[in-house]
Design a protein that fits this description.
270 residues, alpha/beta, four-stranded mixed sheet, globular
Length: 270
């Protein structure tokens, strides 16, 4: 982590109510280049058809030009390219692929915003976070079931979550911490950009395209406030027994209650 991001992280941890008005300057040439190098090298190209290998030929010069556009407010997000991948139930999941330079700027922004939000996110959240993953969530569910007096587990999955996020509320929640207008404008561009599907430009009023680098972080910010904090501060104090939430993105086991006296049992509700 760069010195600047370390300092942002320290300030965020020190004061949970602090708002950050000036952080866009940390999207430096070096930060963008680091973001470029972290991208998946064989990932599908966006509407610009620019691949990692093609961009890499003049990467440093390309990054410098990109940085100049971001700094001067001339950067424009390109529409997403819509592709479909099959799901286990036979349906198709829509994935929105950003252009390479959009991936670069989004990755750099994610690293910057992680310095803030990793100080806020609760331990129950495991999806799309540094040094956390699906196996950690499964391990936590197993630990709770095996070590705590639990009788019931409720499993929840938000249908079409990424497509259903209310953008105006999302921006309100982001602004609880981030007030830098440059960063907010970037996020606004990314969540409002259209999608090219079968040659047509589609514009939606809700959601943040699943497939964008920035989307998992924004999804976590949204659920942190509307689910995780609500469960921790409103739901748990009202329950008579123990209660735990384990969440991986929009999949969660949101409630587990103290079991009654007698043989131990676990009921899974789907």
């Amino acid at each position: 982590m760069s010195t600047g991001r370390i300092r942002i992280s320290e300030l965020a941890k020190e004061d949970k109510e602090r708002k950050f008005f000036s952080i866009a300057h940390l999207l430096t040439v070096d930060a963008l280049y680091e973001a470029f190098e972290s991208l998946q090298k064989d990932a599908s190209a966006g509407v610009d058809r620019v691949t990692y290998a093609g961009y890499q030929v003049d990467a440093w010069e390309n990054i410098q030009k990109l940085h100049s556009r971001v700094k001067n407010g001339q950067y424009r997000a390109r529409p997403l390219r819509r592709v479909y991948i099959p799901k286990e139930d036979g349906r198709q999941r829509p994935i929105s692929i950003p252009s390479l330079e959009d991936k670069i700027v989004q990755r750099a922004a994610v690293e910057l915003l992680n310095a803030i939000y990793e100080q806020d996110f609760l331990k129950c959240s495991h999806g799309f976070r540094p040094r956390r993953g699906a196996q950690d969530a499964l391990d936590e569910v197993g630990r709770i079931i095996c070590q705590r007096p639990i009788s019931t587990v409720l499993e929840a999955d938000i249908t079409g979550y990424f497509d259903a996020i209310v953008r105006s509320l999302l921006m309100e929640l982001v602004e609880k911490r981030v007030r830098d207008r440059s960063i907010l404008r970037l996020i606004g561009k990314w969540i409002n950009v259209g999608v090219i599907d079968d040659g047509r430009l589609l514009i939606s009023e809700t959601g943040t395209g699943q497939g964008q680098v920035i989307s998992p972080l924004l999804a976590n910010v949204y659920l942190h406030y509307v689910l995780d904090e609500w469960f921790e501060t409103v739901v748990k104090p009202r329950l008579k027994g123990e209660a735990y939430e384990v969440r991986f993105a929009d999949d969660c086991a949101p409630r587990a209650q103290r079991r009654p006296k007698g043989p131990r049992s676990v009921q899974l509700l789907n």
